[in-house]
């Protein structure tokens, strides 16, 4: 059944108070609810309906009288009194057999919950919709040392604990954790003087992996006070690490639950990239306390209201904590790799979708990352001051509300006086806009003509012009900036902008900082790109120029069999050697476009990508860079060594990243000598794993792989890396066989989402291996998805995005993929999650 945004109606009742009692038992937990309902003055009428799924009803009462509710689709209906009443129910559920990891489930003997988006209905009968907000009191009974829920602790005794959350919240923010856990404690005093107890709860062996997460939490709390004026609002903030989790983490009020991969870190077991990701996810979940919890979403179509904004906030935070330039480049890399890819195929949907079958399928790069980009554009259009006035108004006007995108845009209109009706199209129109560029220079006047168009996407054949902020700066031919960054507002299909008083034709730096999530179609000569790489004052565009140059070269190598362009090699060498540049930036500049990115680019220019040709060209270019830049790279490898104890900060991480980039090239020449010795001497996971990756890349990792496994077999998160690296780096023709072998490894615990994703996600990202012409990888992935679907529909459905670009490939590959997708579609009892995905991907 499809749910439509247009069909929104308020709930018949309001909930004044919720009391829940849990009697925990693995196979038969009792949940006793007592809920105070009152008629909702905004209701348009209708039957009283409560959601409920997989619940065994023991009994139900209204105002103390037994009632027998009527079964309805996805829940129950019941005749209720006209005025306020108390609903009581006792249900039985089975956490132990809940492998979908939604609702109340067990992970290695520990009870935990995941309720967003619609998991609470698997715990008890309830109006499980975000616009129904209520204070919750919770009692947990169970013989486990740690019993946690939302809010503040109220009382505790032997075998029970009570929690009370004073802040009205929707059911999706409910959480419960019970287990044999230990805590890494700390405290934080808010700026108005509230003393907050902080804890990260883990299994005993993980206690040494909490310090970084705790530090990130305290920095996030401080940052939100300083930058957004937002303070924490309870006496305690708990974070729990869970090994079996479908997503990254969850912002449950006062009790955030994290995938252990998103919180646990130590120098020996986590890489720089892991530390960075943990810092941003801790911040993200913490920031949700205001953007998500205090102000939530009216319905799930408004998901970007909390997610786009919270991603935007965590990106700002990471930029402030580390480097804005590096942050922006990494965010754009991720946006292009995931969101542009999504926008360019059958799964394209607006930032605010208008219909869905299963909402879990819409926790997407479009809702999250493009949702954040839309906020970045708004901020650029109204300015920093306008943005901060609008946000203050948002928090004061909507605190306690379940709000909409209309509410969000209205605060910007009211705070700044700007009409946002055209801008609003960013929320409803799917697809990545293209901007074509024409330039002319005449008599001291430079004219830039920009035209926009957005390709058709499913259900949206025709597109209207958007408001696109295009940040532009001009450089003189000798490399000086003659016009500093100015934001052009492109609102029409085609528009010209002029700059006068110039003494020579300038070189334009367009879309600085990637000021809008668009594809800039600009035919630029290699020399102009190299010029911008050398001289642009905007760090993003400086990097972008190098990236575009490398892309042009690779496309010519792929399509015309051209040789690696020496101009690119020289430009890269200049950047690599430029000591005025941050090592992290230089590492990014030495990174080549990904194979999937190249495939997308080819497809967009009307060609059919051949994954093997792309792979070969990238290998050939890497080899050429290694040969040409050999001395520079070898110097860098030596100079970038970090001495002293490992620290995960941006400076040291940047040096390690540049050193690793050098090692990747050097290993193509030195037979792995440096990588082998780095592998043996590394005292941190970044360098150990980096060396292992280089050895795998050149086919010399056998000994190191065995040693790595021996050293880390007791550490799940590290073993995920061992699995993921092998499937991600398997040689194209052998990928399916290699991954098949990994699935036969006793360590392949496929019901654990992290392990499944490490292996199958690795294969999907191994572009040439995944698209092996035999179809073996398609079949292997499909076999495993068919197996996983009845166990864990969410993770299955998400992994199906591996096929979202299938229409870009040749007829043979399309035929093979279609066969597999149809095989999956025909699987009896296929989940709602997976059937929706496969239907959309096939295009029916
Ligand atoms: N709200 C969480 C976050 O962004 C994501 C949880 C989504 N979970 C799900 N099963 N759809 O941090
Ligand atoms: Zn979020």
TrEMBL record:
Q: Which GO terms describe its molecular function?
A: alanyl aminopeptidase activity; metallopeptidase activity; zinc ion binding
What GO terms describe the biological role, i.e. biological process, of this protein?
proteolysis
Presence of the UniProt keyword Metal-binding in the record: yes
Domain Peptidase M1 alanyl aminopeptidase C-terminal intervals:
527-842
Matching entries from Pfam families are given as:
DUF3458, DUF3458_C, Peptidase_M1, Peptidase_M1_N
Span of domain Aminopeptidase N-like N-terminal: 80-173
Boundaries of each Peptidase M1 alanyl aminopeptidase Ig-like fold domain copy? 431-522
Designated name of the protein: Aminopeptidase N
| UniProt source species | Aliiruegeria lutimaris
């Amino acid at each position: 059944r499809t749910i439509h945004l247009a069909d929104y109606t308020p709930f018949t009742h309001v909930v004044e108070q919720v009391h829940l009692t849990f009697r925990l038992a693995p196979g038969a937990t009792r949940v006793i609810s007592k809920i105070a309902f009152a008629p909702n003055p905004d209701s348009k009428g209708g039957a009283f309906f409560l959601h409920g799924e997989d619940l065994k009803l023991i009994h139900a009462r209204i105002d103390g009288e037994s009632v027998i509710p009527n079964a309805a689709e996805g829940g129950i209906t019941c005749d209720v009194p006209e005025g306020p009443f108390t609903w009581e129910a006792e249900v039985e559920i089975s956490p132990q057999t809940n492998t979908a990891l939604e609702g109340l489930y067990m992970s290695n003997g520990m009870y935990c919950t995941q309720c967003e988006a619609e998991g609470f209905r698997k715990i008890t009968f309830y109006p499980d919709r975000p616009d129904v907000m209520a204070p919750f009191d919770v009692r947990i009974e169970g013989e486990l040392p740690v019993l946690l829920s939302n809010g503040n602790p109220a009382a505790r005794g032997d075998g029970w604990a009570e929690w009370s959350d004073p802040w009205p919240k929707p059911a999706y923010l409910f959480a419960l954790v019970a287990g044999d856990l230990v805590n890494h404690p700390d405290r934080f005093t808010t700026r108005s003087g509230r003393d907050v107890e902080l804890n990260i709860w883990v299994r005993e062996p993980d206690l040494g992996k909490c310090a970084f997460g705790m530090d990130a939490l305290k920095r996030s709390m401080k940052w939100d006070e300083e930058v957004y004026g937002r303070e924490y609002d309870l006496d305690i903030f708990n974070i729990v690490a869970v090994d079996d989790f479908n997503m990254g983490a969850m912002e449950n009020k006062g009790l955030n639950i994290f995938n252990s991969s998103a919180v646990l870190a130590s120098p020996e077991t986590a890489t720089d990239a892991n530390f960075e990701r943990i810092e941003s996810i801790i911040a993200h979940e913490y920031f949700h306390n205001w953007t998500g919890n205090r102000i939530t979403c009216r319905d799930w179509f408004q998901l970007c209201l909390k997610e786009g904004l919270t991603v935007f906030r965590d990106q700002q935070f990471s930029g402030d904590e580390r480097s804005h330039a590096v942050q922006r480049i990494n965010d754009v890399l991720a946006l292009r790799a995931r969101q542009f890819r999504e926008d360019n195929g059958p799964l394209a949907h607006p930032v605010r979708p208008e219909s869905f079958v299963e909402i879990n399928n819409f926790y997407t790069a479009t809702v999250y990352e493009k949702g954040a980009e839309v906020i970045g554009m708004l901020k650029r259009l109204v300015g920093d001051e306008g943005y901060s006035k609008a946000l203050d108004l948002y928090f004061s006007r909507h605190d306690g509300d379940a709000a909409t995108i209309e509410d969000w845009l209205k605060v910007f209109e009211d705070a700044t006086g700007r009409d946002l009706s055209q801008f609003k199209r960013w929320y409803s129109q799917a697809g990545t806009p293209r901007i074509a560029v024409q330039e002319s220079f005449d008599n001291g006047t430079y004219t830039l003509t920009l035209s926009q168009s957005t390709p058709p996407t499913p259900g949206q054949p025709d597109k209207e012009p958007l408001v696109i902020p295009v940040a532009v700066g001009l450089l003189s031919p000798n490399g000086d900036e003659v016009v500093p960054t100015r934001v052009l507002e492109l609102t029409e299909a085609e528009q010209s902008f002029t700059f006068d008083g110039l003494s020579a034709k300038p070189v334009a730096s367009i879309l600085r900082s990637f000021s809008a999530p668009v594809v800039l179609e600009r035919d630029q000569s290699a020399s102009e790109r190299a010029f911008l790489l050398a001289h642009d004052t905007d760090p993003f565009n400086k990097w972008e120029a190098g990236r575009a140059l490398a892309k042009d070269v690779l496309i010519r190598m792929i399509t015309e069999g051209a040789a690696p362009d020496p101009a690119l090699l020289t430009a890269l060498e200049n950047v690599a050697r430029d000591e005025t540049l941050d090592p992290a930036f230089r590492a990014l500049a030495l990174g080549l476009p990904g194979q999937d990115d190249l495939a997308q680019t080819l497809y967009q220019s009307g060609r059919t990508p051949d994954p093997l040709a792309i792979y070969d060209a990238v290998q050939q270019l890497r080899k050429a860079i290694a040969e040409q830049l050999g001395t520079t790279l070898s110097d860098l490898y030596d100079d970038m060594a970090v001495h002293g104890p490992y620290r995960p900060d941006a400076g040291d991480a940047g040096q390690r990243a540049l050193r690793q980039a050098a090692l990747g090239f050097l290993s193509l020449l030195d037979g792995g000598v440096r990588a082998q010795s780095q592998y043996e001497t590394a005292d941190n996971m970044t360098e150990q794993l980096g060396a292992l990756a280089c050895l795998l890349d050149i086919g010399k990792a056998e000994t190191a792989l065995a040693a790595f496994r021996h050293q880390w077999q007791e550490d799940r998160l590290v073993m995920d890396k061992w699995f993921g690296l092998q499937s991600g780096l398997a040689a194209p023709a052998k990928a399916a066989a290699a991954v098949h072998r990994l699935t036969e490894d006793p360590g392949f615990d496929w019901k654990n989402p992290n392990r499944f994703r490490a292996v199958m996600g690795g294969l999907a990202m191994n572009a040439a291996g995944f698209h092996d012409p035999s179809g073996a990888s398609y079949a292997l992935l499909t076999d495993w998805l068919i197996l996983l679907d009845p166990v864990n529909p969410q993770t299955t459905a998400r992994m199906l995005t591996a096929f979202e670009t299938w229409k870009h490939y040749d007829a043979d590959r399309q035929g093979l993929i279609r066969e597999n997708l149809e095989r999956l579609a025909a699987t009896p009892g296929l989940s709602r999650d997976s059937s929706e995905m496969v239907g959309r991907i096939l295009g029916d």
